[in-house]
Every structure is written in C-alpha cells, then in structure tokens.
C-alpha cells in the first residue's frame, strides 16, 4: 500500500506536467456524448422516446462523468511495451508491474476529475439540486457499482494489452472491444433505446457493467432486485477478469523474450 | 516554369509514397474491409435515430445518408492528402526542423502540405462512394447529372475548408511549442461534421450564420445538391472558402514571424 501511494504521488506529478494534453483528451472524450445530446434533443422534440429530453441530457452527462472516471488506456501502452521489450525495467523494480499502471491511471484521473467539475455542477442543477438517488441503499450500490466498473474495465484493458505476449499486433482485439462497447455498454446509444434483443444480451455480457449499469442505478431506472442481480453479475465478471489477468501475466512472462535487450 | 517545378515535386512525392504503400499491400485490403464496416456502423446509428422520427432537424433519412456519403469522400481525401502532413507540423516546429523547409526554394506551405500521403485512405473514399451509389440506386432522392457531377467541386472546396480549419489550430503550435495532441482537434471536427449542422442549431439561421465555416464543409454542399438551397449559394461557398484560406494564410505568416527555431 505504501509503495502504491508513493507511486501514485510520482504519477500524479507526472500527469500534472501533461495537464494541457489531458485537457485535450478530456475534450475528445466529451465530444461524442455532447453530439449525442444534440441529436436526441432534436429527435425527442417531435415524437415519444423512451427517455425524456432532460433524461437524455442527464444520461449523456453521466456518460461523460462516469465514462471518464472508469476509463482505462493502459492496455495500448502495455502491448507496445511488451513488443519492444520495455517492460524489463519494471520487472526489476520492488513493486508489481500492475502497481505502476494503477498509479498512472489514478494520477491521470485526479487531474481529469477537475475538468469534470463543470459537468457535475450542471448535472446537480439539472435535477433541481434534488438527486434521484433515494436512500443509503441506492447510494451505496451506486458507489459499489462504479468501483467495480472501474476495476473491471481496467483489468480487461490490461488483459488485452497482455495479448501482446502472444500476438504481434493487438489492434484488432482493441477494435473488437471498442465495437462491443458501442453496442452493449450504452456509451453511444442508451440501452433503453436499443432493440429488446440487444438489451437482453447486454445483461449477460460484461460491457454493460463497465458503464451503463451505474448510470442506470443513478437515474433510478432499476428495482432493488435488478440492482442486486446486476451487482452479482458484475462481481462475477470481475472475478473472471482477475483470474484471466493472473493466468495471462504468469504464462505471458514465460513467453516474454525481452526483445531489444 | 514554376508550375512545372511544383508539378514535378508532386509527382516525385506521390511516387515515393506509392512505393512505400506497396510494401503494405495486404494492409490496403484489410483497410477496405474495416472502412466498409465503419460505414455500416455509421448508417446503423442513423437508422436507430430515424427509428424514432421521420425527420431530424428537417432532414430525412436518405438526405442524411447523402450527407454521410459526401462526408466520407471528403474525409478520405483529407486523411489521404492533408492529414498526414498536418499532424507532423507541431513536431517540426517543436524540434526546429521547420528550418529545413523554410530554406528550400519552394513555397513553405506547399512543401509542408504535400510531402506525405496516406494512399490507403482511398478505402475511406471508396466507402463514401459506396454510400452515394446506394442512395442513388435506391431512388430515394431524385438526382440530376449536374448534381452528381457537382459533388466533385464541392469535395474540393470542402477539403479546402477542412485544411483551413485544421491549419488554424496547428498554427498555434508556433506559440505553444508543445502540442502533441493535434488528433484531438481532428476527432472533434470530424465527429461533429458527420451530421447536418442543423442538428446542433435546430436550423436557426442566426446560429448557422455564426458557425458558417463548419456549415460550408458538408452541410451546405449537401443542401445545394438536394435543392434545399438555391444554386447560387455555390458562389457563396467559393467566397467562404477563399476567405478562410486567406485568413489562415495570414495567421500562418504572422505566426512564422514568431518562430524561434529551437535548433539554432
């Protein structure tokens, strides 16, 4: 824990030097949700849609906030580091490789959170300062869901990066992952808008539990039973991801040839 | 004489880029498949939108398809000819490599803007043409030959606008020196242009007027081809392009006077 904290300090300071770039990354992350808000505003003006105008706005603002908070992009760097033999120095350090990635991820998020503040304020105002989260149960399950989402997305991302132990090029897997997120996570189109069949599939696949699930809890769209079953499925996926992570790291290291060294 | 020298340069650059591209022939086939998939995904999202409404901000589904087709053609041309050059500029400026371009006996903007090409982006253009052929074959919109042919000059003009808008952002790197995230601007620009600007402005004339540099990339050409705007707007399109190009050129020359050449 102490190691993690000191790494966190280092990576936070590191991220601080790139605050301009991080601002731009945040900008690129909010573009699509904001475009989506405009699109649905111009649609829901004339016809009946599953969500009301204000709900569409709230939904996509939450996509921005929670999407940024759960985001992970370590995998891209891990795969290129493995290919170029650059993870060797990390193997000699006194803390596990993944600690660096966690600290790096959290360091960035602290900075990005500051850029998110205007959206948080806007969201609170849009509810007339009366958030839909009714009681402690909803608050606790919402926060739990966010934490598991963050862990799940991060570990899956790292695992895809580990694919580089076996494959020369992991771009295709990342593309496939991105497309699955497109359909099943509610990132681009709220799952409530999607055809029934996609909604049913998304309840089983892990992608909904990386973004849409905490948003649904927050907006009060789920019953107590649905929240419980959702949290269970989410936890199962997290355990599966952790097992895959452990296996691929130990097996991958055996194949790792430290090219360039 | 001067024209011949520039033409010569373009031919040389293309030969060079083509021979580089030939090393990755399989990549091109793969890229066509990826593009076909993305176009499909793009049309699918539009279909989902139109599952709830017959018109969006005054546009019907086939009309948006047409706009998507034109946009994909322009985007492909931009990413083939201009994007590979523009993304290298901030690094050139940051490392002082701009010196080498400034001292060459040709126009600097020409040299910096034409040196690199990504010929595999032809796949993106093909994807756009595919959409246009689909819209045409379905008889969803009535076309005249003149309107089909006009897509070409419109694409050239749209390309000029995209170039100007991106150059505007990139020129800031002369002052800021460290600007590695140029792709973010392109991301924001390309994502917001692939729908009619009316979606953001609800067709308000005032807002469309304020946002005119964005309107004239794809939205206005599509409107003229669809007959939603009178044909004489074509001249306004040309004037708009000329103004943007002129303004960006001025800004670039102004910035160059502040270029401090990191290496010397």
Structural class of chain A: mainly alpha
Q: Cα-atom Rg of chain A, whole angstroms?
A: 19 Å
Arithmetic mean pLDDT of chain B: 84
Instruction: Report the strand count of chain A.
Output: 0
- Which percent bin holds the helix content of chain B? over 70%
Rg of chain B to the nearest angstrom? 20 Å
The percentage of residues in β strands of chain A lies in under 5%
Brief summary of the model shown:
Chain A is mainly α. Chain A is 74% helix and 0% strand. Chain A is built from 11 helices and no strands.
List descriptors:
heterodimer; A: 261 residues; mainly alpha; 74% helix; globular; B: 264 residues; two-stranded antiparallel sheet
Structure, explained:
The complex is a heterodimer of chains A (261) and B (264). By secondary structure, chain A is an all-alpha fold. In chain A, 74% of the residues lie in helices and 0% in strands. The relative contact order of chain A is 0.13. Chain B has 264 residues and is mainly α. Helix content of chain B is 75%, strand content 2%. Chain B has 15 helices and two strands. Chain B has helices spanning 2-22, 25-50, 61-81, 83-86, 89-95, 98-102, 108-114, 122-137, 145-171, 173-176, 182-193, 198-201, 205-210, 212-225, 233-256, and strands at 55-56, 59-60. A two-stranded antiparallel sheet of chain B has the order 1-2. In chain B, helix 2 crosses helix 8 (122-137), helix 3 (61-81) crosses helix 14 (212-225) and helix 9 (145-171) runs antiparallel to helix 14.
